[in-house]
Amino acid sequence: MKTSPAVHRLRLVSGPEGLSFLLLLLCSVLKRTTSFNAVPVMGMVHGVLFILYVVFLALAWQQQRWDAKRGVLLFVLSVLPTGGFFAERMLAREERGEAPAAPVAA
Q: Which end of the chain is more exposed for a tag (fewer CB within 10 A), N or C?
């Protein structure tokens, strides 16, 4: 099955979303240990990227007709630190045609 533009957009936003989550966690630690407080700015950046990720996930899920297991896996990856990086790799392999449309259970 050919991947849709929504899958490409999801892949493009998954890396920055994962990075913004890590930076938000770092800013939270710095806020509590120093006088540096970038949480409001990083919170907004991460929030926008997360919303984009969820919207693109919904569009890709619908257009690619993924099963529930794949959609839930991609959502769970979005709420885990570094999960966005794993989602990006998985989606890049799918775009190149190296991975099946659904993950294989181990």
A: C
Q: What is the pLDDT of residue 101?
A: 53
**What is the widest separation between alpha-carbon atoms in the chain?**
52
Q: Is 99 helix (H, G, I), strand (E, B) or coil?
A: coil
Which long-range CB contacts under 8 A does 25-31 form with residues at least 24 apart?
25/81
Rounded CA separation 58/9 (Å): 11
Residue with tokens 């989550």: 21
On whether the CB atoms of residues 86 and 77 are closer than 8 A, the answer is: yes
Strand intervals (E) in the chain: none
pLDDT at residue 100, rounded to an integer: 56
